[in-house]
């Protein structure tokens, strides 16, 4: 037969209430509600001390809270024989009552206290009779007095216990109390919990069950021995492995501890006090010190110089093998003061006071003297010693070295002679610095002018485009030989000259979209040789020299041809149409010293194109201005002054360098350095000329310039196309998403609005797969050009364009099988594949850059931080390893040639600390010896631009994710 326990409790006349661990009332019987005056509004769900508050820190509050705490911590029943506790009645009155309460724990399935069942009885009347002495029986009086005494003792005991626990937990050493032969945990302080793991449960568990990982380490056996013999055991620096964190490998700790037996009243051992200190940090420091000393001795023995150490008193206590080999002595010799016997007798009186003074003051010791070699000859040495201090600042040891300077002494006479010309050399150095500063100022000036020129060219091209389209449309209705048609032809010729001028400005401003390919300059020079000879005329003899084994370079061939043609024409004019022009192509390497002197050059491997004439030459003042736009030395009407500016801008945009060597009357040599490419040569596909043809397809025209948009619309409609117009990318996207049929998107690159033209094009191709996209621009900025190069797959129509060019490009895209190649964008995500956008892939990456050249390092840091990477920089291998030891990184970018370690060695050590760390070797060579032994490593050949750098970082980190 089932028993309804809740019904029984509800019916009993004694008050019962059930509390959860937060002391929230979850159930109360009728008797409890009656005695507390809550029959009309049961306080279910309320905190009992909030429903029945007592003054804070009052005796009532302390007694009740202490009882609840004892039940929750011990899991045992707790009694309050007598507790004064007020009750706030529903009508607002506060009644001061006395109670007798019992708090019983209710356990969950895991044996943990889940609820507290309170049985409380109102004994107010009984207590009041005790106050007036009107007990019905003496037993009642004794009962009340005993209850009051027990309540007071419990309160005092609880207070004392909490005080003891507080002191126990705040003890600086770890403490645990074990009882019984199984060593059951009875008490542990906070320090003990921090050592063995704060998340563990210990109390009530035998030590073998609470700390199973300690089995086999000898500690359990020592506990058994102390319990059996009653003799304490103490150890210093004991090694122990503990699972301090869950699901983590054991942690190595070192502790000083004592197992102290605890005896009962009869003298028998009833438990063990465990007390001690964590000395892990000290032991690790000692271990590191030993390792450091061993590394020092290993390093000292491998150094070619003499190395020695001395105590605080200045007496030598160790010398390296190189010292003994030099002096021809054996172990034990030269220690103490014995080293003086290999010192030249004439140097003893001078050197001894210097060493004595250094030992007395603790200052660095440095001097020069002669030491006897094993063959009896003396050689000059520079000796230097530095003091090592302890924490108190006292000298603990001296570390010194002797460096052979015999050769230096032999050249002192020559140095003295050089010192006589010191003023001249200082002046020369000042001139060099001034040249560097002038180069830097010139570079900054050219950059500013370039930005201005690019911006002017952009607006100029838009104006030219509106003029070009309007003129061609106007010409369509005229007879070819009419006066109006001839005037329009003249206007179109002027527009073409303006377009050429704008193109030169863009080239100088480094804003033209290049289409670079790996090119053999020797082959290219052979192809354009007839054009060059035709340009300079018969009076100029052209001599070409192409070095064997010529490297490829990554360039835009058309722009290079224009640059070379400009240089040839300038040379012809400088030689007044008669003379010899030499064009040479060879491999070249620009070192770090040269790069530092130029301020805007990246050291590395280049292909050098040199053009030398026998003309009149130039002064330094002319050379300083030769690359400025509209500057020319030619008579008025003989040149625009943009040829050399275009050459400069193109070379800089290609990642190269231009140098001019010229003197009045000695001719001029212009050297163009273009970065080496390791790719095989690529040939540009020939463009097929087509007749002008229109079509009936529908074209979405997106252009923010009203005049250009109207002109483009008229040209398209004149060719027969249907046109949908939009003033910006936002309007264009609205037209795309409207569902109207589209056959091609023709859009300007640079427009205002929320979206960019690139984003609009990607959205269009997502909604209309295979939709051809043609970008039209006179200034592409970074929307479709990155690192000075037109993005792969982009179709670009350069402004200003003629009707014929527009018609041909449209038919090329519309007639292509399956439409034109889409504008590049990220494909559907694949597991762990690196993003197509290198800058996005680099955002948030932690990268350590190790490069000893300051200018190169600053450039690398700037390029990476611009992409959102978090960069830490180091000038040596040791600094890089220290940074990686302080915090891990996502990638290491390291130069190969460093002042202390090779880049390969730095990478190996870094991966020893952080296995699998991706590595990029930055070098001017095409390969790095030993790089194949480094995991997840790739070589990036200098010079390289931001796009190449970010792509390498993205691919390297993506490759790591795939692995």
From TrEMBL:
Biased composition (Low complexity) is annotated at 817-830
Q: Which residues form the Response regulatory domain?
A: 698-814, 846-957
> Tell me, what's a Pfam family for it?
PAS_4
KW DNA-binding (keyword) present: no
Q: Which UniProt keywords apply?
A: ATP-binding, Coiled coil, Kinase, Nucleotide-binding, Phosphoprotein, Transferase, Two-component regulatory system
Per its UniProt record, what PANTHER family does this chain match? C4-DICARBOXYLATE TRANSPORT SENSOR PROTEIN DCTB (PTHR43065:SF46), SENSOR HISTIDINE KINASE (PTHR43065)
Name this protein carries in UniProt: histidine kinase
Q: Which organism is it from?
A: Limimaricola pyoseonensis
């Amino acid at each position: 037969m089932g028993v309804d326990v809740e019904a029984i409790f509800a019916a009993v006349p004694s008050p019962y209430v059930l509390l959860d661990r937060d002391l929230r009332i979850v159930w109360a019987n009728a008797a409890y509600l009656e005695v507390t005056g809550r029959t009309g509004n049961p306080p279910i769900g309320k905190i009992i001390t909030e429903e029945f508050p007592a003054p804070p820190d009052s005796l009532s509050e302390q007694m009740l809270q202490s009882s609840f705490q004892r039940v929750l911590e011990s899991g045992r029943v707790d009694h309050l024989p007598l507790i004064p506790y007020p009750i706030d009645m529903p009508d607002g009155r506060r009644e001061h009552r006395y109670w007798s309460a019992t708090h019983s724990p209710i356990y969950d399935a895991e044996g943990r206290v889940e609820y507290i069942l309170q049985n409380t009885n109102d004994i107010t009347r009984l207590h009041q009779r005790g106050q007036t002495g009107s007990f019905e029986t003496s037993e009642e009086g004794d009962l009340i007095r005993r209850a009051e005494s027990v309540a007071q003792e419990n309160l005092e005991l609880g207070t004392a216990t909490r005080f003891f626990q507080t002191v126990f937990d705040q003890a600086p050493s770890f403490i645990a109390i074990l009882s019984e032969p199984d060593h059951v945990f009875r008490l542990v302080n906070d320090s003990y919990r921090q050592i063995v793991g704060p998340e563990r449960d210990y109390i009530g568990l035998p030590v073998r069950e609470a700390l199973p990982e300690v089995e086999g380490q000898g500690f359990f056996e020592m506990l058994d021995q102390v319990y059996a013999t009653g003799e304490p055991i103490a150890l210093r620096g004991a090694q122990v492995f503990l699972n301090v964190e869950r699901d983590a490998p054991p942690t190595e700790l070192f502790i000083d501890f004592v197992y102290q037996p605890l005896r009962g009243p009869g003298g028998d051992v009833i438990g063990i006090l465990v007390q001690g200190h964590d000395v892990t940090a000290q032991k690790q420091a000692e271990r590191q010190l030993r390792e450091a000393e061993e590394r020092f001795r290993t390093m000292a023995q491998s150094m070619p110089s003499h190395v020695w150490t001395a105590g605080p008193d200045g007496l030598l206590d160790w010398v390296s093998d190189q010292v003994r080999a030099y002096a021809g002595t054996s172990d034990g010799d030269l220690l103490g003061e014995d080293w003086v016997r290999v010192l030249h007798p004439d140097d003893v009186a001078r050197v001894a006071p210097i060493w004595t003074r250094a030992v007395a003051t603790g200052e660095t010791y440095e001097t020069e003297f002669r030491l006897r070699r094993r063959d009896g000859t003396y050689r000059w040495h520079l000796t230097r010693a530095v003091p090592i201090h302890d924490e108190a600042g006292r000298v603990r040891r001296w570390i010194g070295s002797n460096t052979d300077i015999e050769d230096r002494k032999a050249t002192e006479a020559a140095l003295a002679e050089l010192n006589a010309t010191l003023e001249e050399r200082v002046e020369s150095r000042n001139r060099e610095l001034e040249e560097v500063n002038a180069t830097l100022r010139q570079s900054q000036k050219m950059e500013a002018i370039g930005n201005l020129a690019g911006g002017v060219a952009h607006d100029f091209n838009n104006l030219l485009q509106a003029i070009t389209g309007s003129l061609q449309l106007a010409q369509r209705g005229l007879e070819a030989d009419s006066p109006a048609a001839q005037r329009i032809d003249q206007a179109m010729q002027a527009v073409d000259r303006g377009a050429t001028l704008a193109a030169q400005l863009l080239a100088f401003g480094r804003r033209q979209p290049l289409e670079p390919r790996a090119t053999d300059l020797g082959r290219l020079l052979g192809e354009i040789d007839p054009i060059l000879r035709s340009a300079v005329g018969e009076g100029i003899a052209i001599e070409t020299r192409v070095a064997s084994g010529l490297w490829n370079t990554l360039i835009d061939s058309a722009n290079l041809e224009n640059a070379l043609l400009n240089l040839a024409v300038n040379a012809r004019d400088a030689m007044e149409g008669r003379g010899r022009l030499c064009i040479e192509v060879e491999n070249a390497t620009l070192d770090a010293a040269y790069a530092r002197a130029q301020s805007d050059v990246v050291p590395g491997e280049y292909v050098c194109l040199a053009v030398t004439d026998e003309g009149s030459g130039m002064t330094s003042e002319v050379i300083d201005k030769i690359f400025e736009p509209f500057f020319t030395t030619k008579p008025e009407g003989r040149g625009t002054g943009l040829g050399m500016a275009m050459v400069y801008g193109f070379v800089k945009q290609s990642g190269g360098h231009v140098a001019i060597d010229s003197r009045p009357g000695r001719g001029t040599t212009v050297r163009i350095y273009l970065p080496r490419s390791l790719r095989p040569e690529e040939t540009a596909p020939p463009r097929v000329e087509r007749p002008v043809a229109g079509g009936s397809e529908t074209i979405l025209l997106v252009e923010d310039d009203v005049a250009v948009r109207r002109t483009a619309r008229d040209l398209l409609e004149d060719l027969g196309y249907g046109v949908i117009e939009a003033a910006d990318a936002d309007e264009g996207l609205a037209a795309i998403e409207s569902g109207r049929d589209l056959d091609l998107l023709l859009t300007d690159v640079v427009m205002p609005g929320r979206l960019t033209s690139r984003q609009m094009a990607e959205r269009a191709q997502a909604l209309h797969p295979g939709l051809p996209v043609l970008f039209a621009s006179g200034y592409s900025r970074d929307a479709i050009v990155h690192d000075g190069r037109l993005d792969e797959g982009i179709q670009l129509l350069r402004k200003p364009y003629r009707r014929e060019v527009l018609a041909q490009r449209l038919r090329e895209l519309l007639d292509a099988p399956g439409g034109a190649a889409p504008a590049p964008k990220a494909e559907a995500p694949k597991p762990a594949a690196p993003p197509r956008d290198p800058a996005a892939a680099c955002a948030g990456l932690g990268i350590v850059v190790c490069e000893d050249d300051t200018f190169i390092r600053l450039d690398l840091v700037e390029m990476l931080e611009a992409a959102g990477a978090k960069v830490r920089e180091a000038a040596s291998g040791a600094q890089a390893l220290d940074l990686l030891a302080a915090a891990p990184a996502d990638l290491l970018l390291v130069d190969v040639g460093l002042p202390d370690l090779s880049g390969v060695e730095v990478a190996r050590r870094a991966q020893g600390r952080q296995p699998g760390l991706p590595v990029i070797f930055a070098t001017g060579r095409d390969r790095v010896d030993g790089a194949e032994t480094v995991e997840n490593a790739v070589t990036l050949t200098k010079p390289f631009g931001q796009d190449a750098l970010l792509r390498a970082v993205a691919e390297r980190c993506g490759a790591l994710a795939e692995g």
